[in-house]
Amino acid sequence: MSPLAFSDDEFRLPLYHADDARYEALGAWLITEISVSFNACLAALALVDDASNGGVPGEEWDSEGFDVQVDGCRIRFQNQVLKSQHGEYSVPEVRDAVERYWGFLVDRPEHADLIREYRPDLPWWQAELLQWEERWGRPHPYRGRLF
Q1: Residue 14 near residue 36 (C-beta atoms within 8 A)
Q2: Whether the predicted pLDDT of 16 surpasses 70
Q3: Does residue 61 surpass a pLDDT of 80?
Q4: How far is 127 from 122, CA to CA, in rounded Å?
């Protein structure tokens, strides 16, 4: 069982629930840095895929909320505001959490009244995937695995 679970609050914003306080920084990073953005989650998936393959991330995590440092088989998170909120996790731990968070985002119902300009014929996550691939000029490393 994963140490993190996800749900929505009354405003449809994500919440995390950690079985172990050690996962607080990872959970906070997911719900604040990725929030409900498929694009940000695609970037996080690419980051963990690069790290899983022993490579340097193709893109640094640019954030105003967390410092993210990939060092070999470990990923460190440091909240820039709450200095006490930090954690270091193995790449498999982060990969599992991001993959589960992706599933959480995909399973959330779309807003019926939301009008999207780019590929409104597709589910939102698929449109974001196509945009990511167009931006980076390559198939997403998770294509064929999660989507």
Answers
A1: yes
A2: yes
A3: no
A4: 6
